[in-house]
Amino acid sequence: MLKKFIPDQYVQSVYDIETEELRKRGVKGIITDLDNTLVEWDRKDATEKLLTWFERLREEGFEVVIVSNNNEKRVHTFASPHGLTFIHSAKKPFSKAFKAACRLMNLKHSEVVVLGDQLLTDILGGNRAGFQTILVVPVAETDGILTKFNRAIERRVFKAMKRKGLIEWERE
Ligand SMILES: [Mg+2]
């Protein structure tokens, strides 16, 4: 059971992801979470740095879809001005939205990596749906109210994984 919570990779931020490494693993598409993965959960707009990152991914030939559990207003306001493809109200960890994103990119599950800052939604959902997964340290130390609840469970999962020697790192 715990294994489904273990990401294939763990990075400090999305900017630390080596696209060359992704390519070697056969990755052609990226499904990314929004809140606390790309920007702080309470930041309305994308940062310049993030837009540059998206542009680079596009130039390198990667497909990208934002898949967020947040509502249409939040995700639309963030993504639409920059022409970013998105699915809102995704109900992660359920796999429906992940699969829909995969179809939008016209890629196989094995060609897609899921990025996110939460074990209980992004990583569990991505693993269960058969994608590669990358866990990102949350951009902000604060969370929305629902996420706070998930974090409490997440801390217990991290501790259990560490105890079993499944991971070397631990999150506060
Ligand atoms: Mg998140």
Could you say which structural class the secondary elements and strand pairing correspond to? alpha/beta
CATH hierarchy, class? Alpha Beta
* N to C succession of SSEs: EHEHEHEHEHEH
> What ligand species are in this complex?
magnesium ion
User: What would you say the CATH architecture is?
Assistant: 3-Layer(aba) Sandwich
Provide the gyration radius in Å: 15 Å
Helicity range: 25-40%
Indicate the multimeric state: single chain
Number of domains: 1
First-last Cα distance: 22 Å
Main pleated sheet: 6 strands, parallel
Adjacency order of strands in the biggest sheet: 1-6-5-2-3-4
Tell me about this structure.
It is built from 6 helices and 6 strands. The protein has helices at 19-24, 48-59, 72-79, 96-105, 119-128, 145-163; strands spanning 9-11, 29-32, 63-67, 85-87, 112-116, 132-136. It has one domain: Rossmann fold. The chain binds magnesium ion.
